[in-house]
Amino acid sequence: MKKKKKKLALVLSGGGFKGAFQIGALEYLLYNPVMIENEVLDINHFDIISGVSVGSLNGAFVATRQLETLKEIWFDKIIHEGPDIVYTSKYLEHGKPDIKKILTELVPDLSIWQRLLLIFSRSRQEKFARQVLKNFLDLEGLADNTPLLELLKKHVHLDKFKDVDYKMGFVSLRDGRYKSVSHHQLPNNKELQKAIMASSTMPVIWPPIPYIHTIAGEKFFDNVDGGIRNVTPLKDVIDEINSRAKDDEEYYIIVINCSTSSLPPIDPDPSIVDIAVRSMLDITMAEIFKNDLEQFIWINDMLRAQNLDKLKIDSKIYRRYKIKIIQPPRSLGGTLDARPEIIKAWRQLGYDTAKKETSTLDWNA
């Protein structure tokens, strides 16, 4: 029987500054031999890369073979210059919201006399509430990610993608649907960079990317982080494999997930922003990934139990996949935690976890 050609797919989850975990894991995978079913491979290339949120950013640099540049951004620029290399904000300090500054921006400054009048006047209270609401609606985001766009303009261009299908995911706020777009579908560098920006634009933190269009004429409006609907774009990779897989090829999927179900405790007296970040970014991401993975494993187990490599039901093809899941055994910090010591710790944990997971020969989820 002819030996099948091994193909590699990489799936990168969302997770904000926890994305340093992915860089540590990729350092191990790309700089050390990896055992894949009794064959030692030096991984220097992935055939498919799919990412959302920080995974789309990291994935873009890996797909264009710029891991060293990516490491410099993470572990030189961000650690020594702070997150200003990625975004600027007067409301965030190392990723932590400054509640006092936010309230100062939203709540009109009133004199003592005006405050007294406010207590006894219903009309003044209503006017005050309308002004606070207007200020909130005018505040498109807590940060400006223009520096990130400048990084993408400098480093990520369509002509740098060689023999790879790179996919990024974002959500259009117009219809609430998740969109997965390949770099092949985008007409120029500007639309590519906007799509990556959209995939990494956390709602409330950064303003949406207003408009993206594809070569085919598709138009997407008000686009934000794909991680709010699809934390780990495993399905995007599976769909791509199903559309291109040949009988003499066998795909191996590596998933690098930044989230874990075990979250660190937050302050005993959290602010409303702390609560929003914990519920929307940390807990939601962990739960979506857990559900996605459980469904994938269930299908894989069913096919393995029947000793089948693939099964077609109606027009849909279900395949059995070889997969490695690299995810942190514990959490070191939140999604927006950009403290240098935390980023360094995520990097080391990613390296150590990738080493441990690839030391076993088992590629079955």
TrEMBL record:
GO BP annotations, alphabetical order: lipid catabolic process
Chain ranges for the short sequence motif DGA/G as given in the UniProt record: 225-227
Motif (GXSXG): 51-55
Chain span(s) of sequence motif GXGXXG: 14-19
Domain PNPLA: from-to ranges: 10-238
Molecular function via GO: hydrolase activity
Record's keyword terms, sorted: Hydrolase, Lipid degradation, Lipid metabolism
Highest taxon, organism lineage: Bacteria
Pfam family, one: Patatin
Keyword Glycosyltransferase in annotation: no
Annotated active site: S53, D225
Keyword Transferase on entry: no
Protein's name in the database: Patatin-like phospholipase family protein
Species assigned in the record: Membranihabitans marinus
Lineage: Bacteria, Pseudomonadati, Bacteroidota, Saprospiria, Saprospirales
